[in-house]
Amino acid sequence: MYAVEYQRAKSVADAAAALAKTGGKALAGGQSLVGAMKLRLASPGTVVDLSGIAELKGIRKEGDAIMIGAMTTHADVAASAVVKEAIPALAKVAEGIGDRQVRNRGTLGGSLANNDPAADYPAAVLALGATVLTNKRKISADDFFRGMYETALADDEIITGVSFPVPKKAAYAKFPQPASRFALVGVFVAQTAGGVRVAVTGAASHVHRATAIEQALSKSFTADAAKAVKIPADNLNNDLHGSSEYRAHLVSVMAGRAVAAAG
Predict the structure, then answer these.
(1) Range of the domain at 50
(2) Largest CA distance in the chain
(3) Cα distances (Å, whole numbers) of residue 226 to 43, 96, 98, 204, 243
């Protein structure tokens, strides 16, 4: 590690002001940022700790949506009776993130702001057509994820919560990388009020929608319909964990499993 200034914010306004003044990084659960700092992949001069801001935590039902505060941990989402009743697939996503330590420290907002190419939450947010709320505005899921570790957030913008519309059906299927437990390929499938949405994580540089599978499932919401779609390997990840062709095959397989789990 290296010398870094630590500030603990008391409110969202305090945190935003500190980020704007110092050009530092917001610290949520720290499961990604601290690791990156240790490896010198990130070197902020200042970290602004959000953990003391009570207004960023909590889960509640708001009409036909579930509102989850940005600093709510994965463990709290997984255990929430509100989430389990309204969007059980979202609780399952949280339950399968990392290990127990990660789930008890990592947060929804931190995961989305980091936007790891193989993270689970981005697939749920994109497939459910969620809205990311910040201290400045509301951002639709389709506009939020921009690229590898890149989002629509400004440097001094802080995620305050996420509003998840309750779907008709939804499920997530993940083929995990055994060591990291990140998704080699993960597919979240949802039947929403606006139609079928399918989001894929782990396969490419960032989470994205599988429009070909969406079209197939719009005609026939069955596992066979999803598995029959041939995904092009172009632009998919190709590394020691799996070739781009292997990942392309897994996208259809995981989509089929997600549809079967959705019922």
Answers:
(1) 5-165
(2) 57
(3) 43, 23, 27, 19, 21
